[in-house]
Design brief:
By secondary structure, this protein is an all-alpha fold. The chain is built from 22 helices and no strands.
Length: 436
């Protein structure tokens, strides 16, 4: 007869196996958690937990931020508020070496901040920016890799769905997480831009210079086209930072503001609303399925004693924060090759949070580190979800091998950004320190 700890690890292994054969993550975690709880307690208790947990979870007020931020992003996208981003960035940045690549980073960062979705950003910008770069003889790896990597910035630059979920499970302020991600997200974007400029200077064949000299009138016209997006993002973030409204309320305010802006520009109609609502319902249900499975796994982890065992094991190797982060980074990089970002974060948090708390590590700082690690996982082979999204969006314009070759330079910049975040915790903690 297996002891509780063995049951817990067997269930976790079974969950990974189910995910490996492409069972939906939420379903996989829910199945193995139910079986594990039944083995530790009994079938009646397992049915009771599986019945009660989804009801209480879905009724949690804090998680209404998830559909609201999704709705904000989908309204902005469906109403065309994100259109013209790349064109505007191109007018201002095309004179730089590798200017179209730099413009792509800026456009992706703004798009991602509005949508909160790495996949949506990569898919949309791949169809706009990459063909334009290829037209001007940019290296295919650079032209596709820049969009795949820059699309991940939506995880760090607030508002971010990953931050909402991390804050919920770690029981930390979502508002502080949003504010904490701003500087690390900006640093990541600047590192991408600097790398593109440096490589373009070293080898002009990667990104041939453009002979473009836009007039001030053209630039002003481009700014008039994209002003709603910075206003939308700024309004949400300023409201959270100043405490005017909570992150949950901010999602609703952002969705309403997106609709008002779209209406004032004559772009809000029944078709836009239908598309936005349908995408929000679909996205929310998919995320909640994963989270419900994770909540059940959390119960199993607690009942089996896995959390205490993992905390004791990892801390026995040393209580140094850097060593602990390195061990956690290895876990995320390896699993990130096979599991999508939301699923990976929610799969690991029930096990890692007790370890981090035992080590007295700041959970806001740890949250930013985790999200940066998840960004790396989105572009790391062999899965690299964003890479496959780019390939699907571009079809035969680029090969999978070209995208993966181009992405490595950005992975290196991500590792540099991660090292900076780890070495200087105040980059993540300075702005939240001004909040109540």
């Amino acid at each position: 007869m297996m002891d509780n700890l063995t049951i817990g690890f067997a269930a976790l292994g079974g969950g990974l196996l189910l995910m490996a054969v492409r069972v939906q993550i939420g379903a996989a975690l829910g199945i193995v958690s139910f079986i594990g709880i039944a083995a530790i307690l009994n079938m009646k208790a397992a049915f009771g937990i599986v019945t009660a947990v989804p009801f209480y979870f879905v009724g949690d007020w804090n998680l209404t931020a998830v559909p609201m931020f999704l709705l904000m992003g989908y309204v902005a996208s469906s109403a065309g508020l994100t259109a013209g981003l790349f064109h505007a960035m191109r007018l201002f940045l095309s004179r730089l070496p590798g200017g179209l690549g730099v413009a792509s980073v800026g456009a992706c960062a703004l798009f991602a901040a509005a949508s909160g979705s790495s996949v949506a950003t990569s898919s949309a910008m791949a169809r706009i920016a990459t063909p334009e770069m290829l037209k001007y003889k940019y290296n295919p790896g650079l032209a596709s890799g820049v969009v795949a990597a820059s699309g991940t910035l939506g995880s760090l630059i607030p508002p971010s769905i990953l931050m909402v979920l991390f804050g919920y499970f770690a029981e930390v302020s979502i508002a502080k997480l949003f504010v904490a991600g701003f500087l690390p997200g900006l640093i990541s974007a600047l590192l991408y831009m600097g790398m593109i400029v440096g490589r373009s200077i070293a080898d002009p064949r990667l990104a041939p210079a453009l002979d473009e000299h836009p007039s001030w009138s053209e630039m002003r016209a481009a700014l008039k086209e994209i002003w709603p997006l910075p206003l939308l993002i700024g309004g949400v973030l300023v409201g959270i930072f100043t405490g005017i409204f909570t992150p949950t309320e901010a999602g609703a305010v952002g969705a309403l503001l997106a609709m008002v802006i779209a209406a004032t520009r004559g772009k809000l109609n029944r078709a836009v609303l239908r598309t936005a609502f349908f995408q929000t319902l679909s996205g929310t249900s998919g995320i909640f399925m994963v989270v419900i499975g994770t909540v059940l796994l959390t119960r199993l982890v607690a009942l089996s004693g896995m959390a205490d065992f993992m905390a004791d094991t990892m801390l026995s190797l040393g209580t140094n924060d850097i060593l602990l982060i390195v061990m956690i980074a290895v876990i995320y990089v390896v699993l990130g090759m096979f599991v999508d970002s939301i699923g990976l974060m929610l799969l690991t948090l029930p096990i890692l949070l007790p370890v981090v708390r035992e080590a007295n590590m700041d959970l806001i700082w740890f949250g930013i580190i985790v999200i940066k690690l998840l960004e790396i996982g989105l572009v790391t082979p062999p899965v690299g979800l964003n890479v496959y999204v780019i390939k699907g969006a571009l079809g035969e314009l680029v090969t999978l091998q070209q995208i993966f070759r181009g992405i490595w330079w950005f992975i290196v910049m991500d590792i540099v950004a991660l090292a900076v975040i780890v070495a200087f915790p105040q980059l993540s903690l300075w702005l939240p320190g001004f909040m109540q």
